[in-house]
Amino acid sequence: MNPLRAEKTIAVFGSGETARRLSREFLDRGRAVLLIMSRDQDTGDVPEGAECVVGGELVSATGQVGDFTLVLRVAEKREQHRVGFIVLAYESVREPVYDILGEPAHERVWSLSHLETQLAEGVFPEEYGKVLFLDRLDGVNSVAASERLLKAVVTAQEEHEIACCLVTCQVKVASPGLEMLYGRMRDGGCFVARTDLLDLEVNPGGIRARFDDVVLDDELSVSGALLVVAERERAAPELAKIAEVLGLETDHAGYLQGDNLLRVPCLTNRRGVLVAGGSGADLSDWQRAQNIPSVVEEVNSLSQWLDEVTPVEQIIYDRDRCATCLTCFRVCPHGAILFTDKPNFLHLACQRCGICTSLCPNEAIELAGFEKPSFFERLFPGQSGEKQEWPAAVTGFVCQRSADLVRQYLDEGDPVIGAVRWIEVPCAGALRSQYVLETLARRAEAGGVLVVSCHRDNCRSGDGTIRAAHMVQQVKGLLNTLEMDEGWVEHIPLAPNERERLHREVEQFQARRKKA
């Protein structure tokens, strides 16, 4: 992109503390900020210098990093804004794990949020001398939820001298400082019971819980004057609509990072669209402390990249072959295609996964540098259709972000190097079934084909591994229909540090082919 045309304004969506803190951070660094807040939000704490839109609902968003066009609905009118980056900074919504609070709530049953407020104000009732904390018992609580619960117990013990008992299925401490916090809780006298099922009695005289402790292997009964119910955090309700408009992946809980490790702490599947606070995941205090600086650094990095990059054509498009079927538009995982009367490829948004090219039914699009003629020349060098032999019997189509990285660090005499003819692909999802079938057909003594991809939650495109696995199953089905051995082709998910697994998988594949 021409640096003179790149837009650097940052659109921050959110109404809570995270959105305000981020806006201040950007403003302190001299960046323009468009803060888009909810209708019911108090605008008295809006950071000075930020342009603020109250009650703005995102209707559409087009473009790419450095050149997004947002259309907002504000009081039944539409406003258009051009921005360079989008940051979604909504807070998670908290709700009790169980519905025993009722309406109206029993005076001896509190939510964790209510307890935190009472402890912070120092007005905890003296008659509640012993508190029973009830965590969720299904085993799917998060580190952040465990942290909140542990902090509440420790504060009650150390600052208010309250006797505590915690009933839980498991306590997650996979964040800096949480093991120490758990130790403080136990040292303070808190009794921790582990179970996944209990009988609970709530009456005017107090609380009693009966259950089978899975550690002590015994039936126990604990009581207290007050029951505090743990809470779960769920994604803000605004995120569902925003994810739909922006084409963002979500996880099972509605957060915007789609269970992909490579997007932690602030990335999404679209370049230039970032998440902060409770928009990406349920975060612990330590994770939150890292999150905002990460967002600021990512914006700085992308801004510098926009100043230096020379846009090049990533996708080669043949309009005469295009059937305008919208397949490429639907399958692109990065929002890099804008469809008008034809697909328009946003080259700064494209992350070169090649998934769109592999699924184009008429081969109207090619990934630059991965065009079919040049790839076939690399796959079948110096031949014109006749069968040909190579020193290695097995052909391995390897993702450049997983197995190819393993290969680069193998010792020169490693037997795997000679056992496999390595064909690097930009993403396993870019591989067409035709390439696999052609390899099996043209080899004089084909030793089989391995398609080696990233693991599903470690795939940069998010879809590449899924598409590769599906393609391999299609090839297997075709071989089976032709009454051929479907074991000629296999799919292997692999991480860059799984050298030993690569050895094992290749050896086992070769052994199976020799027996066939």
Could you explain the architecture of this structure?
The chain has 516 residues and is an alpha/beta fold. The chain has 14 helices and 26 strands. The chain has four domains: 10-92 and 235-308, FAD/NAD(P)-binding domain (3-Layer(bba) Sandwich); 94-232, 3-Layer(bba) Sandwich (FAD/NAD(P)-binding domain); 312-369, Alpha-Beta Plaits, CATH 3.30.70; 384-515, 3-Layer(aba) Sandwich (Rossmann fold). The strands form eight sheets. Strands 3-2-1-7-18 form a five-stranded parallel sheet, with helices on one face. It has a five-stranded parallel sheet with strand order 9-16-10-11-12.
Q: Which radius of gyration do the C-alpha atoms yield?
A: 28 Å
For the biggest sheet, the summary is:
5 strands, parallel
Q: What is the helix fraction of residues, given as a range? A: 25-40%
* DSSP helical segment count: 14
| Number of discrete domains | 4
The residue ranges in which pLDDT falls below 50 over 5 or more consecutive positions are: none
Reading side by side through the largest sheet, how are the strands ordered? 3-2-1-7-18
In CATH, the homologous superfamily of the largest domain goes by the name FAD/NAD(P)-binding domain
The pLDDT mean sits at 89
Beta-strand percentage range: 15-25%
CATH topology of the largest domain: FAD/NAD(P)-binding domain
**Mind telling me the CATH class of the largest domain?**
Alpha Beta
Q: How many E-type strands?
A: 26
The gross shape turns out to be: globular
Q: State the distance separating the first and last CA atoms.
A: 54 Å
